[in-house]
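Hi L., both proteins are below.
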Amino acid sequence: MLLLQTYRNNLNKILATAYLKEPWKMGVHKRNGVVYLDVHKLPERPQSEIDRRRCFWGYSFENLATENSIDEDGSGIDANVEYCSVIKTKLGAHRIVMGAEMDCCDSTDDGRRFYVELKTSREVVLLFHELSVF
């Protein structure tokens, strides 16, 4: 049995490696029977203007989609603030303890609370060309 401690995004990187365009590097450390995974920051490529706008749109969506997200001074988009949940799960005989950033939480009528992860994506427009075969 293995005990693994990591952030959820580290597992995403491992599972999506075949599809990622950006390089990444992960450190693995084993101490007292616990394996820790940590992604090491690599120099980022400069963002284009459209990439900066898309990030801003995502933060703006999170801001608008959550209640009471506007501060007293009228600001509300702060990409440096995050809430993390600690989740325990299993994969076969192996135990995994992972932290995961959560965008917000909501509650049911009976008072139970649950986390919500907000996602945005751009609309994919497929252009088909008419082919003529003679």
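That was the first. Here is the second:
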Amino acid sequence: MYILKGSKVFMESIDLQSASQLLLEKEAFFVQRQIPIELNWPSVAFQAFLPIYMEQLEIGSHLEGYGPWIIRKHKTEQIVGEMYIKKVRENGWDEFDLGYHIIETYRNNGYATEAVSLVTEWAFQHQIKKITAYCERLNVASQHVLIKNNFYEIGVDEEFIYFEKLLEKK
């Protein structure tokens, strides 16, 4: 399990055991980890992705860390959201696609901005060269999160705005 720490949040990658427990015994997941129960988590998309991720881990076609992550608030350890990382290889570049969701009651506190920053640094340490992300055109808050993290717009369609960030050594 990977753990990334910032000033507002910390993030944990989901391993096979955690994914299984979330699907089969959600309450036990919280109790065993002494995490305050969050009724609005995980999201439907997160729950739908877990079985696919578990299967990929079991057959060895997926590496831990390149999948779902939990975003937790530092002071209370409360779960405030989730992140998804999908590793891809395109044109000889190692890259991943990033998605995130912050529970509505925790939005506008800088949690997403810091979580994206943390995972961007983690990506650099793992030789990732490019990160892509997209958000709905009407989701201005998410656009700001990406822009604050030095992503730039690469395309727009009727529904989404597409972003990327090229990682370079400092």
